[in-house]
């Protein structure tokens, strides 16, 4: 079972164009939203890296991510692995949900490995900016990116995941990661704190500012299980909810 290089190249080009396009479009949209709501800025500290440098660094690492995605899809299409389920109304969302849950677990444990002494040199570039921005989401070292996103090579080989499910997993991954690095809190709510397992922008922002907490990607489950959740995360989310309420009340009852 061989893998036609021409087909791999076409898949890689399509995935890369879509990923970079989404990165730029969502980044610009979030920047515009953030300018309208300066009060939702999480840290008072200014970002230490330049906007264009972060953009270019992230795009370089997106090429690594897209190579992993294209490789997994191309190998599956060439007959490697268990083979995908037929793409139906139930199989696509079901396998996408399975993929998201598994990616969160993969990311947590690989991320913790990257914070160990032997491997941290590959993760350190991503932490140079203590105040993350929408453009710093993918900035970092190629080894870091390859370790975390090799998941996309394994997923379609080890599970019967339709290609569309892989696309949905990556779409969810990229959108939530860019929002998580945006530096502004727009999505705090009751489902983003205990007893729910959802997370909002504060979650990953605390990882950058406090360093040794909040390693997960989509949910707080693994950090809660292993005791690595920031001790003030739930409190901070609740404080943002209170701010939203105060702002809404002020707008509803403007001063005479």
What would the keywords be for this entry?
globular, 10 helices, mainly alpha, 256 residues
Radius of gyration: 19 Å
- Helix and strand sequence: HHHHHHHHHH
Q: Please bin the fraction of helical residues.
A: 55-70%
Query: What's the number of helices?
Result: 10
Shape designation: globular
Write the layout of secondary structure elements.
Blueprint: H1 5-36, H2 51-77, H3 91-114, H4 120-127, H5 142-149, H6 151-158, H7 163-180, H8 201-210, H9 221-225, H10 233-252
Describe the protein in words:
The protein is mainly alpha-helical. The chain has one domain (5-252). It is built from ten helices and no strands. The protein is globular, with a radius of gyration of 19 Å. It starts with a helix and ends with a helix.
